[in-house]
Amino acid sequence: DVKVTQSSRYLVKRTGEKVFLECVQDMDHENMFWYRQDPGLGLRLIYFSYDVKMKEKGDIPEGYSVSREKKERFSLILESASTNQTSMYLCASSLIEPYRDRAGGYTFGSGTRLTVV
Amino acid sequence: GENVEQHPSTLSVQEGDSAVIKCTYSDSASNYFPWYKQELGKRPQLIIDIRSNVGEKKDQRIAVTLNKTAKHFSLHITETQPEDSAVYFCAASRGTYKYIFGTGTRLKVLA
Is A1's pLDDT higher than 70? Predict the structure, then answer.
């Protein structure tokens, strides 16, 4: 019963390419998030969205943009991929106030491991 | 800025022993503290959480304690088993929508 689906598990792209990472959730959650996971740095927030067409920068938005045209879908875009964007990318979704969810708020996808060569 | 410090980064324990992971947060407005477990190759999943009006919460072998004055919270796992081996992340609420995560602790339970 996968509830947050990321389109690719592994992705290899070349420097300078435009890269799209897709995330779809089926829980009717208002919030969606993109995190980057690197060893020793934990989970760092890139962008989040609390409603369709609404977005806010997280802690490390440089080099990334996002799109949320439909409630269930949140896309992360690397306009011109660089080697320092090689990482694991995690999508998550939550209710508008995640701590009110008995399930604890965030539901994560399985991640996309992106390698930029 | 707001941050969450998590220690240790790696922890090895013998099967059956206890494990403790500690986190410190900086935002005094944080009022919700979840813990996530991420097994190798899998997604992070919530294992326990605590709200700021509670000092301790227990769920079988797992417990979390919160000291609001000191801005500390800790995860305690008793009677560890090999399946407890994973990366554990603490988090603190930041504003209405977001969490800020610690850097993770890789726990290895040695059989």
Answer: no
Q: Which of B9, B49, B89 sits opposite A43 (nearest CB)?
A: B89
Residue of B nearest to A40 (CA): B103
Cβ contacts of B9 on chain A, cutoff 8 Å: 40
- By the 10 Å C-beta count (0-12 exposed, 13-18 middle, 19+ buried), B5 is classed as middle
User: Per-residue pLDDT tens for A14-66?
Assistant: 999 999 999 999 988 899 999 999 988 999 999 999 999 899 999 999 999 99
Q: Judge: B98–A48 Cβ closer than 8 Å, yes or no.
A: yes
* A95-99: long-range pairs with CB below 8 Å, 24+: A95/A29, A95/A30, A95/A31, A96/A30, A96/A31, A96/A50, A96/B96, A96/B97, A97/B96, A97/B97, A98/A31, A98/B32, A98/B93, A98/B97, A98/B99, A99/B31, A99/B32, A99/B34, A99/B49, A99/B51, A99/B93
